[in-house]
Amino acid sequence: QVQLVEYGGGLVQPGGSLRLSCAASGSFFSGIMFNIAVMGWYRQAPGKQRELVASIPPVGSTNYADSVKGRFTISRDNAKKMVYLQMDSLKPEDTAVYYCNRLSPPVDWGQGTQVTVSA
Q1: What pairs with residue 76 in β-bridges?
Q2: pLDDT averaged over every residue in the chain
Q3: Fewer C-beta neighbours within 10 Å, C or N terminus of the chain?
Q4: Do residues 20 and 8 touch, judged by C-beta distance below 8 A?
Q5: H/E element holding 87?
Q6: CA gap 43, 57 in Å, rounded
């Protein structure tokens, strides 16, 4: 059993900021399973495929898609089983539903959180 719940999205003007949060729970992420998982934030814009925008390993460097590098920051709190995405300097093209999940392979997807960047 696994549950991923994303929240923190909303409507923001271009240049604005949002902080997304993802709570992981369920027996799959019990014990150390969350701590050793490479976690990521994905997004899916209307009519487009879901894409990985940021990932964070248990240790080591974070990785970002070129389109968000320098604007987004991913972080995690293993004690709380939480993953965060700080999004700054938002652009209209960042508009999408954002999801978090484990990488390779992903587990059951959550509902995601809508981010809309518009004036």
Answers
A1: 83
A2: 95
A3: C
A4: yes
A5: strand 82-87
A6: 19
The closest alpha carbon to 86, from 58, 60, 61, 56, belongs to: 56
How many residues are listed for the chain in this entry? 119
The pLDDT tens digits for 76-105 are 999 999 999 999 999 999 999 999 999 988
Q: What's the pLDDT score for residue 80?
A: 95
Q: How far apart are CA 101 and CA 43, in angstroms?
A: 11
Q: What are phi and psi of 110, to 5 degrees?
A: -80, -170
Smallest CA-to-CA distance from 82 within 119, 56, 60, 59 is with 56
Which two tokens mark 114?
């809508």
**Dihedral of the alpha carbons of 10, 56, 54, 2, in degrees to the nearest 10:** -60
Q: Are 64 and 54 in contact (CB under 8 A)?
A: yes
Q: Which residues are CB-neighbours of 85 under 8 A, at least 6 positions away? A: 19, 20, 22, 41, 53, 54, 72, 73, 74, 98, 100
